Amino acid sequence: MNTTQTNDFTSIITGRRSIRKYDPSVKISKAEMTQILTEATLAPSSVNMQPWRFLVIESAEGKAKLAPLAKFNQQQVETSAAVIAVFVDMNNFDYAEEIYGTAVERGLMPAEVKERQLAALGAHFANLPAAVNRETIMIDGGLASMQLMLAARAHGYDTNPIGGFEKDQIAEVFGMDKERYIPVMLISIGKAAEAGYASVRLPIDTIAQWK
């Protein structure tokens, strides 16, 4: 990575703030939102099953449904360009053939490796306890969520991760199977109307060890 790239990435990281009030006049086109989400999906995931699913809530009707589920985050819901509900899919292995098959088509994986991997993974997922599956894909969902916020920042937008919402209700309210789709977090996105506050981080000597 050259110096310019390093400086750009550092500014994305250090300039990120959790924003609670956005400029309500700013909208994000579907094309640009698609690009941001596409960049978010470059995050790693366990055996590349990419379990994250995104619900982009941007219409007045969608926000009206969301508002009572995010009672302590009304300002973000009302003023943001959108709120992205990040879910993970308990049936993520249903897409294994598509993912690995496309890798073969693009010359990224030999066909025999695909067949060997899918056979092994099929046996693994067939006996995988639901709790273990959920724990694994929640980690994957967190990785994609952070990448989404950094991608948004690179596009010039601000975000705020939200954990305080009615997780037991949101899937059903938006017509999703709540047993299959598990909410990870909400991420509001838009242009900041007020500067966010910088925050303190613990020193590395406190949180890291070298052996």
From TrEMBL:
<comment type="similarity">
    <text>Belongs to the nitroreductase family.</text>
</comment>
<dbReference type="InterPro" id="IPR000415">
    <property type="entry name" value="Nitroreductase-like"/>
</dbReference>
<keyword id="KW-0560">Oxidoreductase</keyword>
<protein>
    <submittedName>
        <fullName>Nitroreductase</fullName>
    </submittedName>
</protein>
<dbReference type="Pfam" id="PF00881">
    <property type="entry name" value="Nitroreductase"/>
</dbReference>
<dbReference type="InterPro" id="IPR029479">
    <property type="entry name" value="Nitroreductase"/>
</dbReference>
<feature type="domain" description="Nitroreductase">
    <location>
        <begin position="13"/>
        <end position="191"/>
    </location>
</feature>
<dbReference type="GO" id="GO:0016491">
    <property type="term" value="F:oxidoreductase activity"/>
</dbReference>
